[in-house]
Design goal:
Shape: globular
Radius of gyration: 20 Å
Largest sheet: none
Distance between the termini: 23 Å
Order of helices and strands: HHHHHHHHHHHH
Number of helices: 12
Number of domains: 1
Helix content: over 70%
Structural class: mainly alpha
Length: 248
């Protein structure tokens, strides 16, 4: 597994794919942060993270579309299937490589928060009355970061599975985008649904609903289990796809 992980992580930077993803991610996150906080002169970062959740529906497919489709394109898939590594190890290795790159970009984008703390410190220094309420709410930022990292893991697992089903990178990207948008956007319809049980079901599977608790600075165990379970299920399905191919 570790050999596959190193190979995949290295491949992101041998070709431009990794640099393109990192560049788009960091530029987009900086622009979104500027418009939702700095230009609006607000310390509230919830809108920034909410927009980034929607941005993930496009960013993550760019990261995962090549995981298995490229093996088919380069005719190296059979080498993987006959290599002295388990199917589970192969799938997890590829997943962890993509997750590591996404996690690195997410943590690097935290540089965006530095100006908020600098501005808050300057405002506290210029005011004589109690200013303990001025500045970004760190627990909310940490909660949002945890939530968006979990969403990234779940989305990468979904993209990994879809990548294993097709030989075309563009098809893998488009299908993944459609699935991820559905998971995110479905939560927007809860307010217009009158049927209670249906509204509860949609709210339960909605990524936005699950992310809401983290954005409020609450570490939600149920949501943690939900995202980890989502990642586990799609990684398991990917393993089953390749187990079937190996023995056929």
């Amino acid at each position: 597994m570790f050999a596959i992980y190193k190979k995949e992580l290295r491949s992101y930077f041998v070709n431009p794919h990794g640099y393109v993803f990192a560049g788009i991610f960091l530029v987009l996150s900086s622009l979104v942060f500027s418009y939702t906080t700095l230009l609006s002169q607000s310390y509230d970062t919830s809108l920034y993270f909410m927009v980034m959740v929607f941005a993930y529906t496009v960013l993550i497919p760019l990261l995962t579309m090549r995981l298995f489709t490229e093996e088919k394109k380069l005719r190296t898939e059979q080498l993987l299937l006959t290599a002295p590594v388990t199917i589970t190890g192969m799938v997890i290795g590829k997943f962890l490589a993509a997750f590591t790159l996404n996690l690195s970009c997410t943590l690097l984008s935290c540089i965006n928060f530095i100006p908020l703390y600098i501005i808050a410190a300057a405002e506290r220094g210029s005011l004589s009355y109690d200013t303990t309420h001025i500045g970004p709410v760190t627990p909310e930022i940490v909660g949002c970061l945890i939530g968006i990292i979990l969403i990234g893991a779940a989305f990468i697992a979904i993209g990994t599975f879809i990548s294993s089903l097709t030989e075309n990178q563009l098809a893998a990207a488009i299908i993944t985008i459609a699935v991820l948008i559905s998971l995110v956007a479905i939560g927007l319809f809860t307010s217009i649904i009158d049927i209670y049980w249906l509204r509860m079901v949609i709210s339960w599977i909605s990524v936005l609903s699950r992310f809401g608790n983290f954005s409020a600075g609450v570490f939600d165990i149920a949501s943690l289990i939900y995202f980890l379970s989502l990642a586990f299920v799609f990684l398991f399905l990917t393993v089953r796809v390749y187990e079937k191919r190996r023995y056929n």
